[in-house]
From TrEMBL:
Pfam family, one: NDNF
Signal peptide: 1-17
Protein name stated in the entry: Protein NDNF
InterPro entries: FN3_dom, FN3_sf, Ig-like_fold, NDNF, NDNF_C, NDNF_Fn(III)_1, NDNF_N
Alphabetized UniProt keyword annotations: Glycoprotein, Neurogenesis, Repeat, Secreted, Signal
Subcellular location, principal: secreted
Organism of origin: Aegithalos caudatus (Long-tailed tit)
Function noted in UniProt: Secretory protein that plays a role in various cellular processes. Acts as a chemorepellent acting on gonadotropin-releasing hormone (GnRH) expressing neurons regulating their migration to the hypothalamus. Also promotes neuron migration, growth and survival as well as neurite outgrowth and is involved in the development of the olfactory system. May also act through the regulation of growth factors activity and downstream signaling. Also regulates extracellular matrix assembly and cell adhesiveness.
One function term, GO molecular function aspect: heparin binding
Gene behind the chain: Ndnf_0
GO BP terms, alphabetized: nervous system development
Domain Fibronectin type-III positions: 176-313, 434-542
Gene3D superfamilies: Immunoglobulins
Length: 556
């Protein structure tokens, strides 16, 4: 059913008056109020475009009206109206104003008056009503000239919808076509993956170049339309690209968005307060495995078939699945005085667990951070007794009961691998590590530098201990790597023999004087050197001071 140019360009008030006056030539007193209401509705209505998707913004509790006209002279003219709520549920209805046949009824005046009243009341009728947030399509057929009024209302909050009217039902559809069974099937669930499949859209089989499937993954709920999903993401603070199908430009991404393009698949990950929202467009493939999910988490999956030419979309029936719980981490038993060296994978961010059963009331846990950054969490019989980020050497002295069970959980807090040495011991008089000074920094004296020598100093303790000094020649571009990648748990056994400078013993009961200096000679002018000092205690396990880089003078 095609709207004539006459109807399109006729002013709204003239069109309304012409149509209504033709239908109600002489309204009775009882119908005057209805007539005025009809005029008011039309005067405050907008014409609805035919063959085009219209976006309509609704204010809370304020109805909005649109109309369209079916011209006279066509037999059984079809039309369809599709309404897509983009947020909250709305109410909408279709009213039709028909022009009744003008046939006079013979008889007295009372009979003619009843006939006029019946004619007035029968010209308007409500043919469709809906309340909800689903995408709804009304298919209609008209055999008379008629004017249709669409009324939309949002009672929850301001929102927007899209409306598509077409009177040409023979030349294809704006929206891609869904299969007869539009469900999404879950065919595989893992700890971090879910595999989905769905039946092909007839549109995808006919127009492969202009049609593609897009998948939305979130942890909140399913969405009944693409515009509803986009609205939800925007309301969480994100600026979303116009549609999933057209989100192919990196410049559209916000700082909270991550774009991944691999194997002709576009993925956009939005970091929102309610969790991640992932968008994946995969062309015309109808099977997809969603990777990198969190174990033991429920996810909601929605598939949209998108027409790249018209930007219109249709939604499959969403589904959900819960990833498998992560298996309990393997627990390593920790024995008295045993030193365990733990290496943690930063990329997987998994806990490494150590279990210790106390045979004494007092327990001494020792942690030596070797590389990276590590978080330690200690529980006793299921209750947390310590939790913090490790730095250098750390002791935890805990008091409990005999046969208490301690669980030590370690996790890397950065993406690179981290490592730590752990010991549990009831023997406080036999420490694993030597008594440490207040600081493990090495100091160099700029005024004492020469072209051939460097003077360094470090703090000692009140306990006689062995100190060994090592040097290594490095280049300017190696400084950062040497300092960052240094294994603070490794001892002199990992160094080349030529790097050893000396070993010495010293201590001082007065901590103010527990300082030693050493001048390292035989160096080359204008050269960078990395200096390390190792402290050995009674157990023979070394503690490495913080490395120091010093450059000899170029000219003397």
């Amino acid at each position: 059913l095609k709207m004539s140019w006459f109807w399109l360009y006729l002013p709204l008030h003239l069109l309304t008056a012409t149509f209504l006056c033709h239908s109600i030539k002489a309204p009775t007193t009882s119908s005057q109020q209805s007539f005025k209401t009809d005029l008011f509705n039309f005067y405050h209505s907008l014409i609805l475009a035919d063959g085009k998707e219209t976006t309509i913004h609704l204010l809370k509790d304020i109805p909005k009206r649109y109309y369209f006209v079916l011209e006279e002279g066509r037999v059984l003219a079809p039309f369809s109206i599709t309404v897509t709520p983009c947020d909250v549920p709305i109410e909408w209805s279709i009213l039709v104003y028909k022009s009744p046949p003008a046939k006079a009824t013979p008889g007295d005046d009372d009979t003619r008056e009843v006939s006029k009243s019946q004619k007035s009341s029968s010209m308007v009728s409500t043919i469709f009503n809906y309340k909800g947030n689903s995408v709804e399509t009304y298919m209609g057929m008209s055999s008379h000239a008629a004017l249709y009024l669409l009324e939309f209302l949002s009672t929850e909050r301001d929102t927007h919808i899209t409306v598509y009217l077409t009177t040409d039902t023979t030349s294809g559809h704006l929206y891609p076509e869904l299969p007869t069974d539009p469900r999404i099937d879950v065919i595989g669930v893992g700890h971090t993956t879910v595999t989905l499949t769905w039946k092909h859209s007839p549109s995808a089989l006919q127009h492969r170049e202009s049609i593609q499937y897009c998948l939305l993954v979130n942890e909140k709920h399913n969405y009944k339309s693409l515009c509803a999903a986009e609205t939800a993401i925007r309301s969480s603070g994100m600026k979303l690209p116009p549609t999933l199908a057209l989100s192919l430009s990196p410049y559209l991404l916000e700082p909270q968005q991550v774009m991944i393009l691999s194997n002709s698949e576009l993925s956009i990950i939005n970091k929102v307060s309610s969790g991640e929202v992932r968008q994946v467009c995969m062309g015309t493939k109808n099977t997809y495995t969603v990777p990198n999910l969190s174990p033991g988490t429920q996810y909601y999956f929605d598939v949209f078939i998108v027409n790249l030419l018209t930007n219109a979309s249709a939604a499959y029936t969403g589904t959900f699945a819960r990833t498998l719980e992560e298996p309990e981490p393997k627990v390593t038993e920790l024995k008295d005085d045993q030193v365990v060296h733990v290496i943690l994978d930063g990329k997987r961010q998994k806990f490494y667990s150590l279990q210790y059963q106390a045979r004494h009331k007092k327990i001494h846990f020792t942690f030596q951070l070797c590389r990276g950054q590590i978080r330690v969490h200690i529980t006793r019989n299921g209750k947390t007794v310590a939790s913090e980020n490790l730095s250098g050497l750390r002791y935890f002295s805990l008091k409990g009961k005999l046969l208490d069970t301690y669980l030590v959980q370690l996790r890397s807090t950065e993406e690179s691998n981290s490592s730590v040495k752990v010991q549990a011991s009831p023997h406080f008089h036999k420490p694993l590590f030597p008594l440490l000074p207040e600081s493990l920094k090495i100091k160099s004296f700029s005024k004492l530098r020469t072209c051939r020598s460097v003077t360094i100093a470090w703090l000692g303790t009140q306990e006689e201990s062995k100190y060994c000094v090592y040097r290594k020649r490095i280049e300017e571009d190696q400084i950062w790597r040497e300092l960052q990648s240094a294994d603070r748990c490794s001892g002199p056994e990992s160094r080349h023999k030529s790097e050893k400078v000396l070993c010495k013993y010293f201590y001082d009961l007065n901590l103010q004087r527990a300082v030693t200096t050493e001048t390292i000679k035989g160096l080359q002018a204008g050269t960078l050197y990395l200096f390390d000092v190792y402290l050995f205690g009674p157990s023979g396990i070394p503690v490495r001071y913080h490395s120091k880089v010093v450059k000899t003078r170029k000219k003397c």
